[in-house]
User: Fold this.
Amino acid sequence: MAEIRVENVRKTFGKVKAVWDVNLNVRDREFTVLLGPSGCGKTTLLRCIAGLEQVDQGRIFIGDRDVTDLPPRRRQLAMVFQSYAVFPHLTVFENIAFGLRMQHKPKDEIEKQVQSAAKLLHIEELLDRYPAQLSGGQRQRVAVARAIAVQPQVLLLDEPLSNLDALLRLEMRAELKRLLEEIETTTLYVTHDQVEAMSLGDRIAVMRDGQILQYDTPLNVYNRPANLFIGGFIGTPPMNFLEGEIRTEDDRVVVHTGGGDIYPPPKAQAMLRQLKEPEVLVGIRAENIETLHTPAEGTLQAEVLVVEPLGSHNLITMQLGPEQIKVNTDADFKAQPGQTLWLRLNADKICWIEKSSGRAMYPD
Assistant:
């Protein structure tokens, strides 16, 4: 078993609370992503797990072992850094073999493990080259191969694709997912790129200000964000938010916004009735808004500001009352700036957010 357990971990640098009371449980062979903006504490947490930073409080377990006070070499893990960190004076073979030699493995075992790791990363034909003769993507493959060659219980990756160009990142992302599914190693991956997080992770831990705000599957983090910050951070474009006021008309709950009234479904009405304050934020994804050229019952009137054709779809920025929102439409949908359109929000996809606390609420 190579489960990772982080219990009430704190790490400060002076007055800065880099990691604060963090609890995390990464299951055996699971791929967990630490996601958040720069400075949120995700790399510090990874370094604490690796043993590169000593925690101020709390415990860290790998499997049944308490590794909190163990040096990195005794934690049975491997780490891939943002910079490639390959040795320029060593060949690809020697780079991959480095960790195995530090473990004093027999020569034939080293040969076997290096060849196996190189084959998994599709770099077996590069073993005699030096890093200066490789592309950026090939160097990153060497760094990953070196990490998996030692067959670690846990693999830690700190933004390993951030130095690659967009096309190469796309290719390496797919390769990395295939590789980690094949070797079945417990993996913790740090990134600020939500696309990487959504596409790679079994679960995502969203961090902010040194704390984990939500730890869930990618789909739940996307469709059911725990709070206002996560809804606005996850998604391209991020979730739209409309300021609303809860009112009761003829014993029916209506949410009044600057762009018109929204009629929640029955379960949402029952939930909204229990709120102590009338102010609420209405969160809705761009793809959960239907756009019409003509008015219809239950629609909101909006004005087109910007149309961005993106090939597979259009992204339209609209003025809806006092707020601007973004809507996805089919690629052949006709719209131009200044035009009036009507929007129908999918009421079952609305994220209701308590304005004072930023807490998201769902009726089921």
